[in-house]
């Protein structure tokens, strides 16, 4: 899919889509709970749909209504079957632990991109807890997960690559035989997503504890109770709309929890520090003005912001530095190379140097961008066109459905200009 994005004047209101981080976790817990869980505000995206399909294949009864879904958990498929997670690393990793504690032999697979992403630390930790998981060469997916259960107890886990490993074990450990004590070895990243997992588990009645330093996580076996919940808006997706407002006018984005645990709410602080007008009141963020100042930001806790921060930096004065990017190589693309390549393709002086992405501001010319099959690169390139001198053509834009399938509708509703030239 090839889409042309023209320079545009941004103005208007749009409601952020549901947080896929919350949605995927709620779906996994709903499968384990006995009874009907209702998820309100469900907007769907490929990642969330993959989690929902996995729950259905594992035995949950699914009903879809208008902007809500109901999941009747406690039903299980006792056979041998395949769970295909497409490009969703979060779903694959969380459901790997869930597969250990539910009936049936699961063959876990996904897209070629997903199968290249790391999972060995999770497999090693689950094996310590009594899991039987067959891997492909190199401890990579596809996987065959046997329903051995998890015994609980002490387990060491390297979460320096992804906090999703911790989140996975937390969800699965609600069905363990005894309390599970996770000790992080080698550090832990994206801590906010572990908080989100604990938050969701608490909704379902589980008892979890996280040490102040995040070096230990404790999960007690629990009988999860079904819930009725409205999913808050997704700051990761909203970041693209907020950046568009900062670059090319003014935007209001609703359905955003001002007290959210989502790490990517940090985009508001970056925009404010760059000299933009930022206001967060009720559930609506308002952003406008121009990007004035360059910035120095560490994305260790917010790696998904790196592509759009690169675009914002291109419109700032002076040089901006995006640090803490080392694990971006494990995303949907080698996101370090993809961000730098995107920016260079549209006339920006950008480079990876001394472990950080450096961007010299001054504006964007326009040009042709390859998405590298990475939804966040595709969306960042689209927004980059707002204040560009010439249009930006994004090749491989179809990957955007992974996280934000309604982006084109939302973007054009606030003045964005997009033309699909090759479906």
Automatic annotation (TrEMBL):
Keywords: Amino-acid biosynthesis, Aromatic amino acid biosynthesis, Cytoplasm, Transferase
Annotated residues for binding of 3-phosphoshikimate: 20-21, 25, 162-164, 190, 304, 331
Pfam families for the chain: EPSP_synthase (PF00275)
Chief location: cytoplasm
A GO molecular-function descriptor: 3-phosphoshikimate 1-carboxyvinyltransferase activity
Keyword Ligase: no
Pathway: Metabolic intermediate biosynthesis; chorismate biosynthesis; chorismate from D-erythrose 4-phosphate and phosphoenolpyruvate: step 6/7
GO biological process: amino acid biosynthetic process; aromatic amino acid family biosynthetic process; chorismate biosynthetic process
Record-linked Gene3D superfamilies: Enolpyruvate transferase domain (3.65.10.10)
GO (cellular component) term, any one: cytoplasm
PROSITE patterns in the record: EPSP_SYNTHASE_1
SUPFAM superfamilies, sorted: EPT/RTPC-like
Keyword Secreted annotated: no
Role according to the record: Catalyzes the transfer of the enolpyruvyl moiety of phosphoenolpyruvate (PEP) to the 5-hydroxyl of shikimate-3-phosphate (S3P) to produce enolpyruvyl shikimate-3-phosphate and inorganic phosphate.
Subunit structure: Monomer.
Protein name (record): 3-phosphoshikimate 1-carboxyvinyltransferase
Organism: Candidatus Marsarchaeota G2 archaeon ECH_B_2
Species classification: Archaea, Candidatus Marsarchaeota, Candidatus Marsarchaeota group 2
